[in-house]
Write a structure and sequence with these properties.
globular; alpha+beta; Rossmann fold; two-stranded parallel ribbon
Length: 112
């Protein structure tokens, strides 16, 4: 039964069910949530494969490094307001994104 599958395999099954109808667009809502760092790469590769096959992927996620490994464009929101949109690396360097999510004393590239 599907309930006995590992979390990563359940997420793969969810994706397979969604893809059964050959969609042109797929919405992913925090699909990486609950996965370990070791489990993320296979999921990232699967999503990258979807994107490369021509499926438009709209992915809502808090695990930012998973997003930046796949997406061509990143939108960062805070309380429903768009903080930045564009190239993932540029969005992550946006002063407003840094201020809201990391605080004003954070310096990109420095460990605290």
């Amino acid at each position: 039964p599907a309930g006995q599958l590992r979390l990563l395999d359940r997420k793969r099954l969810e994706l397979a069910r969604a893809l059964a109808t050959n969609p042109r667009l797929i919405l992913l809502d925090e699909i990486a949530g609950g996965l370990t760092e070791k489990e993320l790469p296979p999921l990232i590769e699967l999503i990258r494969g979807l994107r490369d096959s021509g499926v438009t992927v709209v992915w809502i996620e808090h695990i930012v490094h998973a997003l930046t490994a796949v997406v061509d464009e990143l939108m960062c929101l805070a309380l429903g307001r768009v903080l930045a949109i564009g190239d993932p690396q540029e969005v992550m360097r946006s002063p407003e994104v840094i201020e809201v999510y990391l605080g004003s004393t954070f310096v990109l590239g420095e460990a605290s």
